[in-house]
Amino acid sequence: MFQSILAKLVAQAGARWAMIVGSDGVLLETDNRFFRTEAEGLAAEYATFYRASRKAATDTDMGGLRSSMLVVDQGKLLFQALTVDYVLILLLAGEEPAGKAFFEMTRATEPLVQELTI
Question: Where do runs of H (alpha helix) occur along 31-85?
């Protein structure tokens, strides 16, 4: 089920890929099987970034981190909290607009959370 939700999300958001990562850095699922080996290493790195961002938000009394964006030379990485233990990460290429992607990620959150809690 994760696979079909992620594939639909990538298509609707105009993204390069999407993944579900545990807060411990373990890759739960990615939409691209050919990318899986690289995705496992990236998942660990991005989870570290996400945990640090979540801690900074809490430490500065900003509340829980729901989403964030990391802008790099080649695109944008979008992070959307699914549960306290899982985060959805999406890569947008170049100048793709982040607003629509965040909207699509928000729409995908409920079915993903339902699958995570089954």
Answer: 36-59
pTM, entire model: 0.92
What residues make up the domain containing 28? 2-116
Are residues 28 and 21 in contact, defined by beta-carbon separation less than 8 angstroms?
yes
Tell me, what DSSP letter sits at residue 33? Answer: G
The number of distinct structural domains making up the chain is 1
Q: How far apart are the first and last CA of the chain?
A: 11
**Each residue's pLDDT tens digit, 24-40:** 999 999 987 667 778 99
- Distance of alpha carbon 118 from its chain centroid, rounded? 20
CATH number at residue 78: 3.30.450.30
